[in-house]
Amino acid sequence: MATNRTFTMLKPDSLEKGNTGAILEKINAAGFKIVAMKQTQMSQVDAEAFYAVHNERPFFGELVEYMTRGPIIAAILEKENAVEDFRTLIGATNPEEAAEGTIRKLYAASIGENAVHGSDSDENAAIEGAFHFSGRDIF
Ligand code: CMP
């Protein structure tokens, strides 16, 4: 089951710019089933924990500030080969390097404010999904 799921967040810039409908449409059109979804806002403690793997990076403070400055949409997505296919759909972390037609190419402003998150492995998809959702929220 875990190998068919990934986790995403539409980040604060996507909500601020009114891009969430268009992004969710692309996610649906690419064949992902939304099995859990909510709008929420991460606290500083939440963001520091979620991104703990990056806490030694020079951009960590900026990342936490960005991810907590407004609401996000968190979702668990299901599809064959979900992690890899979703990373293809969103494109490279840096929108300047993202392929044409990808979500980050279309909607991300910069490497820091990059519109969406996508898990980088099946293991992290499970951890990140469980960070935001309990079993009873997943359908
Ligand atoms: P995400 O894929 O959610 O995982 C880590 C996040 O850190 C990344 O998206 C960006 O939002 C941010 N990030 C990664 N690299 C940089 C960077 N060089 N400068 C600023 N922010 C970055």
Topology:
Layout: E1 5-10, H1 12-16, H2 20-29, E2 33-40, H3 44-50, H4 60-68, E3 72-78, H5 82-90, H6 103-107, E4 116-118, H7 122-132
Antiparallel strand pairs: 1-3, 1-4, 2-3
Residues 54, 59, 62-63, 93, 111-112, 114, 117 line the site of adenosine-3',5'-cyclic-monophosphate.
- How big is the Rg? 14 Å
The 3D shape can be described as: globular
Helix and strand element order: EHHEHHEHHEH
Helix proportion range: 40-55%
CATH-defined superfamily: Nucleoside diphosphate kinase-like domain
- Main sheet: strands, sense, barrel: 4 strands, antiparallel
**Could you name the CATH topology?**
Alpha-Beta Plaits
CATH class group: Alpha Beta
The number of E-state strands comes to 4
Low-pLDDT stretches: none
- The chain-level structural class is alpha+beta
The total domain count is 1
Give every kind of bound small molecule, once each: adenosine-3',5'-cyclic-monophosphate
The strand line-up of the biggest sheet is 2-3-1-4
Strand content: 15-25%
Please identify, by name, the CATH architecture.
Answer: 2-Layer Sandwich
Name the average pLDDT. 97
Instruction: Quickly count the helices.
Output: 7
Q: What gap, in angstroms, lies between the N and C termini? A: 13 Å
